[in-house]
């Protein structure tokens, strides 16, 4: 597959173009499906909310009817007379019972009505009461009716001669109409089964259902398998708050994801909550999903056929051009190609013919730069083994011997000279490690410190972690020599030469600085201008004022590392000179260091022989 893809532009264009066309198609299909899924979900929400509104109307009507009935009962003369009398009166009881029966007879959701005096008199009820689990709110909050006119209870059971039923009770305190003093309590018991039946009839998709909650989110009515009076979070932990009069929220994730619809009843603190499993409305998208898959597949096949046809038309001229160039010989100049069209391929051939001559010129320039590199390296070597330097060094050795000086200094000077020349020659190697370059400078400084005793100090600041990094050789010694000749020998007293090597990201920064006589601004500007010249413009003769060593180092840096690696000179008259340059880190492998070391050992063996 990789060979098929990598050897043919036609194959690459075909595959990439097909992918470029297919990705939007696939995204369009996915987007369409998601939109349909979203619309289906929105439709399910709208339908469910309409059902909740219809149920809300029924329950609101029932609640208002019961509350109005309670107000009517409180003000009834027969009820007031019975509750105000000091003793039970059978005639009054019978009249009240008949009145309660006429009120509740036509309303299936009213299971019982109980009028309870505050004294020792008997309670009156629409249906004879055997036992009840009802506990009035005043048992836990005696002053509740002082601030609230009515109270709706949670679900509780009530036993009558007809059996046991679950009830939801509206309780009110009955006050006398003349003195407004408490004289009894009224309980209107709603049949929870009738309310639950109405709630369960509301259809929310196939498996969705509705719950009726009280003000504390406890279940008043719902599916048979959900227990009343339990808080909703017992079935759905950490369910979000119901904010506002109505709305929806999402509960759960994955296969357990559900859409929660809710609506708060305005006349009482109850809530209608609809729960729709997400799988219900997403399953309705299967038809649209299949339709989308068929449409996207047909579009993909059409795109593939069209792309292959267009790519064939485009790549035929390029294939002919490739066949023509394949027969050209690399060792010969590239021939001019015939131009048959003026489209992009034709313009490409015209540009190719124009670039052919440019390639020849660039080839000549590369050859010239390589020649300049070799020439600069040769000049650097010539500077390193300058006959004047050798003559002066050997004269110093002779002088020390004639003056019968310490033989250790003679040996040190000769040894440093030997190591200095050995590294300079180094079998023509162009690169070395930072440590080797610094060692080479130390050998040179050992020789110069014997020739010029008590004239300068020398210091190197370079972390050991930088010693193994590679650099172009013979860069630092000419800069140190320049510092001695043009900086320190002209000043009075002892001077200092310092070499600093630091790492900055992927670069090595070098600095050679002295505290010598420095140079005036005109001389500094002249030197900077000479260093800024193109390497090919450098003359072959050393400058009378001693800039040849600096220009040769600058030339080698530019040829090997690029123009940005050139020397930067800072100086102030009487304060010293600082010369810096930066080179990229091109090799850190210890294997290279070992290879160079083995070469050095072999060269040492040949030298000793």
TrEMBL record:
Alphabetized Gene3D superfamilies for the sequence: 6.10.340.10, Histidine kinase-like ATPase, C-terminal domain (3.30.565.10), PAS domain (3.30.450.20)
Location in or out of the cell: Cell membrane
Keyword terms, alphabetized: ATP-binding, Cell membrane, Kinase, Membrane, Nucleotide-binding, Phosphoprotein, Transferase, Transmembrane, Transmembrane helix, Two-component regulatory system
Residues of the signal peptide: none
Annotated stretches, region: Disordered: 590-609
TM spans (from-to): 287-311
Domain of life: Bacteria
An MF annotation (GO) of this entry: kinase activity
Extent of Basic and acidic residues compositional bias: 590-601
Root EC class: transferase
Residue intervals of the Histidine kinase domain: 472-587
Keyword 4Fe-4S: no
The keyword Hydrolase appears for this protein: no
InterPro entries in the cross-refs: Bact_2-comp_sensor_kinase, dCache_1, HAMP_dom, HATPase_C_sf, HATPase_dom, His_kinase_dom, Sig_transdc_His_kin_internal
Catalysis: reaction(s): ATP + protein L-histidine = ADP + protein N-phospho-L-histidine
Protein EC: 2.7.13.3
Family matches, as Pfam families: dCache_1, HATPase_c, His_kinase
Membrane topology label: Multi-pass membrane protein
Start and end residues of each HAMP domain: 312-364
Protein name per UniProt: histidine kinase
Record organism: Paenibacillus cineris
């Amino acid at each position: 597959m990789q060979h098929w893809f990598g050897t043919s532009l036609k194959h690459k264009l075909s595959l990439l173009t097909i992918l470029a066309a297919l990705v939007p198609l696939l995204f369009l299909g996915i987007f369409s499906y998601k939109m349909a899924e979203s619309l289906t979900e929105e439709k399910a929400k709208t339908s469910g909310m309409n059902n909740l509104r219809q149920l809300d109307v029924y329950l609101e009507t029932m609640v208002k009817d019961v509350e109005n009935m309670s107000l009517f009962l409180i003000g009834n003369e027969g009820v007031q007379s019975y509750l105000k009398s000091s003793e039970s009166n059978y005639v009054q009881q019978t009249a009240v019972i008949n009145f309660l029966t006429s009120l509740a007879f036509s309303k299936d959701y009213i299971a019982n009505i109980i009028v309870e005096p505050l004294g020792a008199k008997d309670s009156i009820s629409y249906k004879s009461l055997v036992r009840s689990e009802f506990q009035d709110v005043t048992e836990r909050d005696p002053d509740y009716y002082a601030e609230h006119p009515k109270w709706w209870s949670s679900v509780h059971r009530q036993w009558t001669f007809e059996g046991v039923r679950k009830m939801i009770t509206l309780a009110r305190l009955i006050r006398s109409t003349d003195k407004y003093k408490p004289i009894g309590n009224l309980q209107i018991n709603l049949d929870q089964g009738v309310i639950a039946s109405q709630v369960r009839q509301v259809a929310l998709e196939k498996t969705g259902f509705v719950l009726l909650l009280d003000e504390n989110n406890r279940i008043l009515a719902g599916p048979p398998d959900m227990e009343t009076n339990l808080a909703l979070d017992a079935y759905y932990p950490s369910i979000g708050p119901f904010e506002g009069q109505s709305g929806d929220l999402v509960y759960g994730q994955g296969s357990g994801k559900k859409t929660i619809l809710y609506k708060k009843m305005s006349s009482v603190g109850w809530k209608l909550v609809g729960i729709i499993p997400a799988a219900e409305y997403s399953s309705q998208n299967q038809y649209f999903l299949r339709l989308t898959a068929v449409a996207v597949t047909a579009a993909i096949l059409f795109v593939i056929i069209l792309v292959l046809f267009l790519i064939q038309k485009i790549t035929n001229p390029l294939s002919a051009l490739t066949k023509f160039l394949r027969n050209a010989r690399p060792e010969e100049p590239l021939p001019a190609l015939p131009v048959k069209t003026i489209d992009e391929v034709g313009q490409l051939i015209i540009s190719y013919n124009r670039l052919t001559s440019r390639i020849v010129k660039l080839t000549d320039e590369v050859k010239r730069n390589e020649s300049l590199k070799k020439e600069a390296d040769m000049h650097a070597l010539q500077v390193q083994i300058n006959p004047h330097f050798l003559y002066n060094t050997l004269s110093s050795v002779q002088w020390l011997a004639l003056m019968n000086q310490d033989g250790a200094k003679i040996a040190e000077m000769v040894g440093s000279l030997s190591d200095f020349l050995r590294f300079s020659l180094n079998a023509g190697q162009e690169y070395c490690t930072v440590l080797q370059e610094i060692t080479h400078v130390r050998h040179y400084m050992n020789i110069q410190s014997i020739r010029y005793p008590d004239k300068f100090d020398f210091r190197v600041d370079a972390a050991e972690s930088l010693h193994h990094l590679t650099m172009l050789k013979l860069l630092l010694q000419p800069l140190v020599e320049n510092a001695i000749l043009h900086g320190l020998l002209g000043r009075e007293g002892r001077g200092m030469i310092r070499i600093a090597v630091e790492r900055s990201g992927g670069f090595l920064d070098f600095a050679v600085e002295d505290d010598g006589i420095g140079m005036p601004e005109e001389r500094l500007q002249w030197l900077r201008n000479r260093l800024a010249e193109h390497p090919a413009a450098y003359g072959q003769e050393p400058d009378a004022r001693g800039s040849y060593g600096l220009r040769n180092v600058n030339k080698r840096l530019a040829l090997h590392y690029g123009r940005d690696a050139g020397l930067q000179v800072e100086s102030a008259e009487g304060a010293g000179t600082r010369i810096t340059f930066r080179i990229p880190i091109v090799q850190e492998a210890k294997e290279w260091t070992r290879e160079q070391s083995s070469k050095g050992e072999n060269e040492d063996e040949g030298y000793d022989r």
